Amino acid sequence: MNKLRDELVEAGLLISTGIQGLFGRSERFERVVDALDAYITRLGADQHAEVLRFPPAMSRPEFERSEYLKSFPQLAGTVHSFCGNEHDHQRVLQCLDRGDDWTESQKPTYVVMTPAACYPVYPVLAQRGALPEDGRIVDAFSYCFRHEPSLDPTRMQLFRMREYIRVGTPEQILAFRQDWIERGTRMIDALQLPNSIDLANDPFFGRGGKIVASSQRDQNLKFELLIPIEYDARLTACLSFNYHMDHFGLLWGIKTADAAVAHTGCVGFGLERLTLGLFRHHGLDPHAWPQAVRDVLWGHR
Fold first, then answer.
1. Are 199 and 226 a contacting pair, CB within 8 Å?
2. CA dihedral in degrees (161, 159, 68, 112; nearest 10)?
3. CATH assignment at residue 171
4. 90 located within any domain
5. Backbone angles phi, psi at 33, to 5 degrees
6. How far apart, in whole angstroms, are the C-alpha atoms of residue 99 and residue 167?
7. Helix, strand or coil for residue 166?
């Protein structure tokens, strides 16, 4: 059992599907998500970012090129479809009638679930040739999939991620990240949510992953803005500030204006987690939230 999950489902904010980490959302929940999304747009308006929107799936060849499976095979989700003939279809129907496994005739397609909103962006930038002198900033937003079923409502399998992605020189990326650490903190302070910034690492797989995670920390590549959401006082990462160095620039051949390998970084906003944080700390009725918070999200309505 999970107390927070049960409260949210009972209040009708989240709708259980019977699968851990897979929820429907109510109109009340979505109003908050939409307001947060608009707030993030206002916060980043001065960056004049290029807006790119992709479906929650990407090309399998580009996914393979990203090396995601080297680091996070446990989180990846692939799309499979029936690829058999009529005889195979009859076998599927027989399996369904008997309650047996029917997935043998399912084969992987060339579509993979998007693991992070920035992943479809890099091949697009690479195809355009060298970056302009001041690099690029891209605004991305997508549902993302990570296979980590859990009773914890802050750990959904399908969730929305908003990102600003910076591509350019190391100096440009580091300045961008520091700027967004400060902006992100002001954002969450304005929402009157307790928060802290801490060094972090990604959940790299296996024994080798522990070494990579340690290296990521040693190089100060990832920071997170943490908010206590669960009742057990665990801290949940709601914003992340990442410096990828030249990893994606090398993989896709992205070049700066002077033909050097581009570096990349991003700030990511977990919209469901931020929404859950607001309900957890301000109550389940947004009309009863502090007026200052309501003004930030919806203006003087």
1. no
2. -110
3. 3.30.930.10
4. no
5. -55, -45
6. 50
7. strand
CB of 162 closer than 8 Å to CB of 53? no
Task: List CB contacts of 91: < 8 A, sequence separation 6 or more.
Answer: 84, 104, 105
Residue 100 lies in a domain: no
* CA separation for the pair 77, 63 (Å, rounded): 11
Condensed to tens digits (0 to 9), the pLDDT of residues 92-147 reads 999 999 999 999 889 999 999 999 999 999 999 999 999 999 999 999 999 999 99
Cα angle vertex 250, ends 205, 108, to 5°? 55
**Judging by DSSP bridges, how do beta strands 57-59 and 78-82 pair with one another?**
unpaired
Residue closest to 151 by CA, chosen among 2, 30, 278: 2
Determine the structural domain holding residue 178 and report its residue range.
Answer: 3-58+115-298
The reported pTM is 0.95
Which amino acid, 80? H
Any domain includes 35: yes
Q: How far is CA 63 from the centre of its chain?
A: 16
Q: Tell me if 77 is assigned to some domain.
A: no
Which residues does 40 contact at the CB level (< 8 Å), separation at least 6? 162, 187, 269
| pLDDT tens per residue, range 148-174 | 999 999 999 999 999 999 999 999 999
CA 289-291-295 angle, 5° bins:
110
Tally the domains of the chain: 1
DSSP state of 40: H
231 CB contacts (<8 Å, ≥6 apart)? Answer: 3, 4
Give the closest residue to 269 by CA, choosing from 115, 40, 28, 21.
Answer: 40
Q: What is the pLDDT of residues 232-252, one digit of tens each?
A: 889 999 999 999 999 999 999
Report residue 22 as tokens: 């897979």
